[in-house]
Every structure is written in structure tokens, then in C-alpha cells.
Amino acid sequence: MMMRYITTLIFVAVAGFVGYTLYSTYDSNPWTRDGQVRAYIVEITPRVTGQVTHVHVNDNVQVKKGDLLFEIDQSVYQASLNKTLASKKQASALLKKARDEQRRAVSLEKRAPGAVPVLTLNNLGNAVETAKANLEVMQAAVEEAKLNLEFTKVYAPTDGYITNLQLREGSQVTANTPVVALIDEDSFWIEGFFKETDLQGVDEGDLSFVTLLTQSDRVLEAEIKSVGYGISMQDGSTGNSLLPVVNPNFEWIRLAQRIPVKVKLTHVPEDIQLRIGMTASVKIIKGENPQ
């Protein structure tokens, strides 16, 4: 009988020790399966309006910074440039005429003082300044027309991946309206959502380990870049009539909220391709920094 009591106590002690060890390990190294791959998405936005004449990329391809993505019909903008160049020539001719008239009047005044009224000299001077201003306006118009012509060719602003491409030749695009999604190649990170009770002692720069669902047998080293400062509130948000929205149900058990923790892989193996939305597990090693 005594042996059964002793055996039971030993099993209880061992179970308690194992439970305490597991809890201590989890408390020091919190872990979550609620992680996702994220990256910055650059919305490629044309700066001029027009019809697409050429699309130089396909869907789901990698591009480099400066690669030509698509072209917009140049005819309207080329005609606008030609028109402003002609207007600039006209303004330049008017400036030359104003200066010649002023020069003749000043020369006559020098040879025969009083031959040209002061008011006339002033008006001629004002005419020159007005002509100069008009020429500067037309110069600015030429520069704008040249820029608009250049904007008919849209280039990749960074290295990345084109995805969900819906643009086709013949499509009409509008200035300042995004038409192509470009995922920044160098901006991938893992966002893990941890219970607020797990974040005590978690600091920027702490070591972490990431496991992707697609390759669960490989553990990738990472570093904590930041811990979120807030999440969206359900209770207290503004509803109808500017009154707060309050959930009528109250749970007796207070559930810990989940806070996003941004983790950056220290090295991405060449045979692993990160994609936005992929599922990941994240483990944090408190107080340790990647070597």
C-alpha cells in the first residue's frame, strides 16, 4: 500500500516538475502559430492619363528597378510638347522685339535728350519685363510637357514582384490611379501575433526563430524589429450619431489581446521564396540577440 502512495507521489512530482519546466520555457520563449509573411506593396500609379499601348511585363514575374513596365499613348503629349515649343519661340520673338524697341528708344534719348518721353521709356521697359516673364512661363510649360511625355513610360521604382496584373494593351489608365501592384523584394518580414501577457521583457533586437508552414522542417533565424503599439478596438469605436459602440455581451474570462510583433529574417535561403500571406510560426528568445 505504501509503495502505491510513494509511486503516486513520484508521478505527481515528476508531472509537476515537467509542467513547471514547460511553463518556464514558454514564459522565457513565447511561441505562436499565428504568424504571416508580410511585405510592402508599391502601387504603380501612372502620372498621366491615356490608353496603354504596350505592356512589357507578365503576371507574377520578377522585375528590377528601372525596368519598363508599360507605355501610354504618346501622341497627345507629343503634340502638346510641339505646341508649347512653338509658343516658346513666339514668346522669345516678342521678347526680342520688345528689347529692340527699348534699345532704339534709349539710343534716341541719348542722342537727343528729351526726344523720348519718360513715360514711353518706362512703358518700353515694362514691355520687356512682361515679355521676359511670358518667356519664362512658356519655358515652364515646355518642361511640363516634356515631363508628361516622359511619364508615358512607366518604370519599376524598386526591385520586386509583379502580381495580380490586370493591365492590358488598349486599357485606359487615369493619372494618379494605381493600376499595377509591385511587391518590394527587400521588404519581406514576418508578423507574429502574441498574447499581451507574453510580451513582458520582449525587446527590439531579440532573437527569434521562424518556421514556415510550407517548410515546417526548417527553422529560420530572425530578429525582432518592433512591437506594435496598438490594435483596433471593438468596444468604444464610434457608431451612429457619434455614439460609442459597446458589445452587449461580457465574458467572465478576460481573454488576452494579441499584439503584432514584426520579425525580420536575418538570412533568406536561396531555395525559399517568401510570399505575402504565407503562414508562419514564430518563437521569441527573450534577452538574446542574433550573432
Automatic annotation (TrEMBL):
Keywords, in A-Z order: Coiled coil, Membrane, Transmembrane, Transmembrane helix
Transmembrane segments: none
Domain of life: Bacteria
Chain segments annotated as coiled-coil in the UniProt record: 81-148
Keyword Transport tagged: no
Molecular function via GO: transmembrane transporter activity
Pfam families hit by this protein: Beta-barrel_AAEA, BSH_RND
UniProt key word Ribosomal protein: no
p-hydroxybenzoic acid efflux pump subunit AaeA-like beta-barrel domain boundaries: 187-284
Every Multidrug resistance protein MdtA-like barrel-sandwich hybrid domain range: 41-181
Gene3D superfamilies hit by this protein: 2.40.30.170, 2.40.50.100
GO cellular component, one term: membrane
Alphabetical list of InterPro entries matching this protein: AaeA-lik-b-barrel, MdtA-like_BSH, MFP_Efflux_Pump, RND_pump_MFP
Similarity comment text for this entry: Belongs to the membrane fusion protein (MFP) (TC 8.A.1) family.
Name of the protein in question: Efflux transporter periplasmic adaptor subunit
Lineage: Bacteria, Pseudomonadati, Pseudomonadota, Gammaproteobacteria, Vibrionales
